[in-house]
Design a protein that fits this description.
Number of strands: 12
Strand order of the largest sheet: 2-8-7-6-5-3-4
Order of helices and strands: EHHEHEHEEHEEEHHHEHEEEH
Radius of gyration: 20 Å
Oligomer: single chain
Structural class: alpha/beta
Bound molecules: pyridoxal-5'-phosphate
Shape: globular
Length: 317
């Protein structure tokens, strides 16, 4: 949503934004020269964070670039790609652009796919798949690349990543745009076996991640305390908002993430009804969940505006 007059609950972004240390680092960053094409400093920091080697990390222009890169590198026309749904739509879009035959599956089960995409924690439901189940799947399908999109991992305290088991056929994607508040700068990373990371590296556009994005991301990764404490506050904002929606007789579906689902009562869908109040929520029809919207909590005063608008609509229905 780009309209400044619309209150946007549709994007899953940490409302507290980046740490002051990130703003300082960005201010001092040199951007009149080419960025480091290998994002060496950031890759080392990320490797340290996860206890792996830097050659297992590839920094990308957002997780979006990495999803595209996975498909361009590993998917050929006619290959099967399985997607654990309902979920984020970019896996299907990117895979189809490479000629894949896509199949949406409702749970983890071994099949003959070239690539399996799963989103954990899932967008839009916020559900978390236990890491052990993903590891078991990857072991059962050694010829399939199992891609776990953990874009929202830092939005869920105590989340168990599948980075740690270091499986030969599994790739983890992470975003630094959401919990770290860097959406406009675009930065994410992939973690996987060195040969898979090297194949992705060969396919990518050079200098794809700007100097400012690299610098901001490195500062954000160093200031993990800011991310952890603001995510915890964000979850607190979610709990308050959800309690108020329950108070209006609604049934929000809350899982592990700050964002949650709100099923429509009868009548016009919520995204249409709330648009009349200058409020944007995410219609989930494109995820395969018609009649449901996704709400990402903001600060208290904004959440109060949402609740007031919902109250008006509930009273009118
Ligand atoms: C599940 C999931 N993966 C990846 C992305 C893209 O993230 P990025 O901003 O890092 O490109 C999104 C963005 O909404 C997402 O929901």
């Amino acid at each position: 949503v780009t309209d400044p007059y619309v209150l946007d609950f549709s994007a899953n972004l940490n409302p507290f934004g980046p740490a002051p240390s990130v703003l300082r680092a960005v201010h001092e960053c040199r951007w009149d020269v080419y960025p480091d094409p290998d994002a060496t400093v950031l890759s080392r920091l990320l490797a340290e964070r996860h206890g792996i080697e830097a050659r297992q990390v590839l920094v990308g222009n957002g997780c979006s670039e990495l999803i595209d890169l996975v498909c361009r590198t590993f998917v050929r026309s006619g290959d099967r790609v399985s997607i654990v749904g309902p979920t984020y739509g970019e896996y299907v879009r990117s895979a189809r652009l490479c000629g894949a035959v896509c199949r949406t599956i409702s749970g983890l089960r071994p099949d003959d796919a070239r690539v399996v995409f799963l989103c954990n924690p899932n967008n839009p439901t916020g559900a978390v798949i236990p890491g052990a189940e993903i590891v078991a799947l990857a072991r059962a399908v050694p010829d399939t690349l199992v891609v776990a999109d953990e874009a929202y991992a830092d939005c869920v305290p105590g989340f168990t990543s599948v980075i740690t088991p270091g499986l030969p056929n599994s790739l983890v994607l992470r975003s630094l745009t959401k919990a770290h508040g860097l959406a406009g700068l675009r930065v994410g990373y992939a973690v996987g076996p060195p040969d898979v990371i090297e194949a992705l590296r060969r396919t990518r556009v050079p200098w794809g991640v700007s100097a400012v994005a690299q610098t901001a991301a490195a500062a954000a990764v160093r200031d993990d305390a800011h991310t952890r404490s603001t995510v915890s506050d964000w979850l607190g904002l979610r709990d308050e908002l959800v309690a108020r929606l329950h108070g209006l007789g609604l049934s929000p579906a809350v899982a592990a993430t700050p964002f949650f689902l709100l099923p429509n009562p009868t009548g016009d869908p919520w995204h249409v009804r709330l648009a009349r109040h200058g409020i944007a929520v995410r219609d989930c029809s494109s995820f395969g969940l018609p009649g449901v919207v996704r709400v990402s909590p903001r600060f208290g005063a904004d959440n109060a505006r949402l609740v007031a608008a919902v109250r008006v609509e509930v009273e009118q229905s």
